[in-house]
Structures are given as structure tokens and as C-alpha cells.
Fold this sequence. Notes:
- The complex is a heterodimer of chains A (134) and B (383).
- Chain A is built from one helix and eight strands; from the N terminus they run αββββββββ.
- Chain A is mostly beta strands and 134 residues long.
- Chain A has one domain: CATH 2.40.50.840.
- In chain A, strand 1 and strand 2 form a beta hairpin.
- The longest helix of chain A has 10 residues.
- Chain A is globular, with a radius of gyration of 15 Å.
- Chain B is α/β, with parallel strands linked by helices and 383 residues long.
- Chain B has a single domain, classed as Peroxisomal Thiolase, Chain A, domain 1, CATH 3.40.47.10.
- Chain B has a nine-stranded mixed β-sheet with strand order 3-2-4-6-1-7-10-9-8, sandwiched between helices.
- In chain B, helix 6 crosses helix 12 and helix 10 packs across helix 11.
- Chain B is globular and about 55 Å long.
- At the A-B interface, strand 4, strand 5 and strand 6 of A face helix 5 and strand 5 of B.
Amino acid sequence: MQTAATPPRVLGLYDGPMWDRLKDRGELHLQCCSGCGAWRYPPGPACPECLSPEYDWKPVSGGGEVVSWVMFRKQYLPEYPAPYNVVAVRLDEGPMLISNLVEDPDADVIGRRVRLKIVEMQDGVALPRFELEG
Amino acid sequence: MSRSAAVIGIGHTDWVGDWQRVRAGERPDDCYGYATGAFRNALADAGIGRDQIDGLIVGPTTAYERMAEVLRMNVRWGDQADAVLSVVQAVQAIETGAAEVVALVYGNDQRSVGTQYGGPQAMGGDLFLSYVYHAPWGMTSQGALYALTFRAYAERYGISERDLGHVAVAQRQGSARNPNAIQRKEITLDDYLDARYITEPLRLFDYCLINDGGVALIIAEAATAKRLSERPVWIEATGRYDLNAGATNLEPRLTDFYRPAQQAVAEEVFGRAGLEQKDIDVFQVYDSFSVHVPLALEGYGYCGIGEAGRFMAEQGIGLTGRLPTNTSGGHLSETYMQGWAHQIECVRQLRGTCGDRQIEDARRVHYSSDVAGKAVSIIYGSD
């Protein structure tokens, strides 16, 4: 999986702390609702479960499970020459993340356990990816 | 609401000719020009003049005000909407008395201007966060979203890539018999499997075309339709249910494949029309990617959950199959008019004007669309 450059991130009003903490602390922090305890991703202004605007940034455990995966055989982005993989991972905390496995899979990985692996890209972005558990 | 309105006119542009001209480096027209050409044809087909139209809906690719100016249409009701919602809203405008005869016009110059549906300039990102949010991980392509969906679906129910190939093969049966289709060469399952992967597990033939063109329809209130037209095609019923929760993370696609929305819409649309699945002669499905078809077959109850692969292989969705689907060739093989051309294929099948791809005695056609979280259906019928 390439580590040279990162295509543009969506950096809205609520996205900054997640990316800053990935880089500064080496941890993935997501918003956790102060009202009902639900985790949410992507970052946003209110809890979709209870509409509370109150939240804390908290680190996730880093564990999850693969929901689906694909291999790009065609290049769409200058930063991502094909082939490369994309996975959908269900975090143990609940939210689903679209990300990459650090190593391209050589067999079906749906249902496999994965662990968060934060990758330092050469352009300075700390990107949350995953690796398969043994 | 059954039969409160009917389609009395349809029109489209020469997308085969424009496909060749664009590939030769020309720019035959812009969005507004394509829409206008289709509208001229729809007026001629209906045999009415602009002065008999009092409502206008334009597609999402043109500005409402400018489109109305180009067409010189001063109307008492108007809106902008995608294909399926245009029909739904036209019916609602007619039922509330806001308009009596509504023109629906759409034009798209996506091929000649190089509209991108993946990559750094992927369109729609301002509306649909999922289109751009995952770019840092290399994920922007619409096809890749459906590849992720298909992998999860196939794994859960044991559907094979060969099973999925029935969609592309069946739709080429129709397009081969459609002089207006861009891709007219029939293919076999082996041809399908031999084609290259784009985003694995989806292959070349699972992806829609990108081409220029325009489509227009004219929809009239029931009594007016009977007065103006000898062959109105009735809108029997419409239904809609949206799934927006978790959309950016693809939750509705990857966990239950939009099924709860489709099931809710099926109950609504069949209930309102007083029909059942067995009453449907032709199925038309919004097919930006082949994957839409098996999911719609299951979600709308044409087969059991997890049985779409077997249904397509054994019962068939081709012209002679149990449920002929996307008989024009659809987005995969006829033209990518973002659902608009499917509406006029529904009308042509019910008029009996489809020539070699005509489904005999077609009297009820079901159109289904599942795009960006909105599951919407229309059932069209003939007298």
C-alpha cells in the first residue's frame, strides 16, 4: 500500500481534531456523545442517535472486523496507482470506516478481525489503516 | 392516486450519433441543447404545443430558470429533480391542481465535457459526502462503492461473479435489438468473465456507459390525457422511502443492501396500484452498475432473499425470461441518461412500439431506482 501522498481530505468544521490527534498522539479519536454514549464517524455537529451537541473526543480501541473489501484495478487518483485495496471495517465501538489494509489480501477477508495501524504518509498525513490479526 | 396522470409524449436525442461525434472529438451540443432536442421530439410525439403545458421540471444537470428561458416556457408550476422524482413530483403537482400538463426535460453533456464520477474531481461531492470523504484512502469511484456492496452481498448469500454476469448478458439481448442503443453486440457469460476488472469484483460490463444526450416526457392529468392522447400510458402508482442514516460510511449499502427501503416501497407501490409482483410484465431498474438488478429483484420481492443469482440463471431476466429487465439495454448498454431513458422505455413497452425487443402483451411495467439513499418506484400501465 502506497505511503507517498494523500489525496485531499474533507476538512470541515468538525474534522480537525481527528486528524490532529492521529498525527500528534498516534491514536484514532472519534466523537463520543456525552448524552447517550454513541460513537460517530465521520465527525459532525450532533449525535445522530439523540441529537445532543455535547461530545468528547475519545480514543477507540483499534479493533474491528472487515465488512467488505475490493481491489482497485484501475487508477482514479494520481496518488493511488492500481492495484490497491479498500476495506470497510466495523470498529468495535460501532462506526464503520472506509480504509485500506496495509497488505493487499490474497483471499477473502470478510469477517476477519483487524487492528488499527496508523501510517505516516510521506506528505506528513497520519492515515488510519488496518492490518489483519493472525 | 391510481391513474391520476398519464404520459402522453416522449422524446429523446440521437445518442448513438452523438456518441460517434463525441468520440471523433466534436462537441455536438450542451446540456440545454440536448434537453431542447428531446423536448421538441416529445412535443411532436404528443401532438401538442408548448402553450398547452403549464408545468415544467428540469433534470439536475441544468438550471431550472435557464432551461425554462431556453424553452421559452412561462409556467405556473416548476421544479428541478432527478428522473424518478420528476415523475413522482409531476403526479403530485397534477393531483394538487398545481399544474395540468407537465413537461419533464433532461439534457446531459457528461461525455463531451468529461464529467468525472471518480477521481479527484468526482461530481456530486458537495451533495453526497460519501463521494469524496474517503479520497485519502483512494476511494472515490461510484463503481467501487457498488463493488464493495456486491462483495458483501455475494459473500453473505453465496452469489458468484458468474451469477452477476447474467445482468450484462441479458441487457445486451435487449440493446442488440434496439437501434437507439450504443452497445449492440451480444455477449456471453464467458465474454463477461473474460473482461477486465475495473474495481474487483466488478468488471467492465458491470459499469454503465458515459454518453451525451437528452430525454423528455409530457405528463398530463387523467381527463386531459384522454382528451389529448389516443394511447396514454398511465402512472398506476408511485412509492418512495429514503435511507440516510450512516450514508457516508456506506452503512445502508453494506449492511442490508437498501433492502428495508425497497421492501417499504414495494408494499406502498403495489398496494396503491392494487397489483402484485406477478402482475408485472417488464422490470426496469436504475443500473449505474449491474449490482442494482439482483438487489432490486430481492428487495422488491420478485424472488426470495439471497435467491437473485439463481433467479437470473434459471428463471431469467432477458427478453424471453420470467421477468424481462432493462429491455432497452439500460445504462449498461443503451445510454446513460441517469434513469430518464428508462422512463421512455417503460412507455414504449406499454405502447407496443419496441420492435424486436417488444415484450408481448406488456401491460404493467415496474421502474425502480435506488440512488444516493432514495428507493423510489413507479408502476406504469396501459389500457
